[in-house]
Amino acid sequence: MKLILLTIGIAVLFAAAEQNHKKWADYGGGADSSHFVALDQIDKSNVNQLQVAWTYPTGDDRSYLFNPIVVDNVMYVLARNNSLVALDAATGKEIWIHANLPGITPRGISYWESPDRKDRRLIFAINNYLEEIDARSGKSILTFGNHGLVDLKEGLGRDPRTINQIQSDTPGRVFEELIILGSSTGEAYLSPPGDLRAYNIITGKMVWIFHTVPHPGEFGYDTWPKDAWKYSGGTNTWGEITIDEKRGIAYFPTGSPTYDYYGADRIGTNLFANCLLALDARTGKRLWHFQMVHHDLWDYDSTAAPQLLTVRHEGKLVDVVAESSKQGFLYVFDRVTGEPLWPIEERPVPKSEMPGEQAWPTQPFPTAPPAFARQKMTPDDVNPYILTPAERASWKDRIASMRNEGLFTPPGLTESISLPGARGGSNWGSGAADPAKGFLYLNTQDWPTIYKLSLENPLSKPTRAGGANPEDSVYRQQCEACHGKNGMRAGAGPPPLAGIGQRLSLESFRLTVHSGRGEMPAFAGLNDTVVKGLFEYLSRLKGPGPMGGESGTQTATPPPAGTVVASGGAPGGLKIPPGIGVLYQPLEGPAYPPGSQTPKARYYTDWGLYPDQPYVIGPPWSSVVAYDLNSGTIKWKVPLGQDAQAAAEGAHDTGAFMAEHHGMIVTSTGLIFIAASDGKIRALNEDTGQTLWTATLPAGSEGIPAMYEVKGRQYLVVSASSEIHTGGGHGGRGETAENVRPSLPKGYVVFALPVH
Known about the structure:
Elements: H1 2-20, E1 36-37, E2 51-57, E3 69-71, E4 74-79, E5 83-88, E6 94-99, E7 110-113, E8 120-126, E9 129-134, E10 150-151, E11 173-175, E12 178-181, E13 196-200, E14 206-210, H2 228-231, E15 233-234, E16 242-244, E17 249-253, E18 257-258, E19 275-280, E20 286-291, E21 307-313, E22 316-324, E23 330-334, E24 344-348, E25 362-366, H3 389-400, E26 416-418, E27 431-434, E28 439-445, E29 449-451, E30 453-454, H4 470-478, H5 480-483, H6 506-515, H7 528-540, E31 564-567, E32 604-605, E33 622-628, E34 633-639, H8 644-648, E35 664-667, E36 671-675, E37 680-685, E38 691-696, E39 706-710, E40 713-720, E41 747-752
Parallel strand pairs: 1-35, 6-31
Antiparallel strand pairs: 2-41, 3-4, 4-5, 5-6, 7-8, 8-9, 9-10, 11-12, 12-13, 13-14, 15-18, 16-17, 17-19, 19-20, 21-22, 22-23, 24-25, 26-29, 27-28, 28-33, 30-32, 33-34, 35-36, 36-37, 37-38, 39-40, 40-41
């Protein structure tokens, strides 16, 4: 009888899942962030018959991480020099283009419609403003906010003129008539706080705010120094928000406080940093929280979307929320009460040796499920492939000399190492679920991080002699540490800047420099004349694409071909207000408020704090992991992709490098679709991880694919416009040759079964 009831219960839940997951009308497929699709045309028996139905070229040389959304028969994508484009979802034919939106949230947008469907809106952040576009006409909605703009720098309790960066690269979540937002605050000392906010979708008025650095009298205030709310920042949700729409609960994974690696000015556990935070979606009231890292010193941001599932636990069906982490742990809670499904133990961890620092003496360790990534690296783990014998010996000696006491070894004045690393484990876009079955899937990578603190700000090092001109000196001082000599960084890391004029307009370049983007800090102290000179200097350098214009000229962004209905968003949205930004060095931040009891010294890590070569550790470098949360066990784990150079040296099942931002789709027919930076998209068997289908793309893929149905035909769309990484980035060795890529344009590639 119990078995019958269990079967009926699962069937009812599965039916509910089908009702809620037939569309892809929002980022990640919907508010629950599951990436689950209840469409049954493509299944295990026919997935190997998928073929290209249509393509849409992006029409430029940019790398797009954008997750397309589909409403009715219309697909919305980002392409053509950062333009929003509406396409016929069955054919790829352009419907309209809203051109010239540099600074728009690159990972996706949000969609809202009124109950009668007469009002339909696309919602996004751009250059620290919130804007909306009419989903049918493609034109800006100027009745929203202040003539179409909501300034996201306002309302944070700090002078907006000192805030260079606040918008997240990830879109917000729609709930009823609210758009709920996280933020990206930058990495510097005294960054703005990552307060969580909700705005009315019709008016643009802020409805509620939750202080992630608590103010006096608020819960958690005593986990910081008494004046920290005036100067501490970060503690932000720059990753993905999930909403339980039935219960009206919003779940936020939060990041580390700033500065990330030295916390003498923020002694304490630092709530609500590094938390899974459950708030009432209508009011912003805290319901419960769990802190996964106390007093973070490692940049262990929580960024992956919380996953909502129903599992059978101790004989009962339990609605849970699961959060994966950079540390390689998976934390599972009752989504209503916040109680862990399995015990989470506080265990002693190493002490800090830094002056003034007080690393928290314990950290939480889940007893189940098991970790999904490697969590320590020794000299024996140095890569047996790709490296030369001399490099291999050097790395073994270097790692042997590091402080290496596990996940929570505090950074110090000598080198320490962490694995999976600040760019390893699970990251945004990397999780998915089969909610009713209780199965959770993760894309993970092992990328060791090496830390070493010093008093030298890596972004204000003295200019080296020998620069040919002032712009060369600016580049050497401010950019070279991350982007490489002459604008051409070898291997994994930030993109090359050489030949930038072929890929960006001067205005787009200026906005990025002054406002920051993702992990790149804002350089508000560089005035427009310096930025223009730097742009022209970089445009003259030979880059990965055609070179830019001659000295003194601006490489303009040409208007895209097609039906351009508007350009530039709401008036003023592409302008940076005059006087913005205090003239201080990035990372250093401004002075502390008068009277605050804070340390005088500010310590830093090199901004390029990750090894230039993530392949110093042996394979596998990236994997897809399947959990059964009914039992708290790993079902299977398989490598994601294959490294070309390691394979040539005899390696098998290595996984591809640079696999941190590759989302997946789970279908009700038992398939998992995932693309990767090796230029391929795969379909895996949900039960075993076996690859059932592979297709070669015209370029690498980052971000989240999408799946939808139009007129009875099921489609899969993937963005393929990124650099292909198949050879570890070791000075360019092992890259895939151009002639092995299919003759498809870089852009959005749409697959479907053949029409019979």
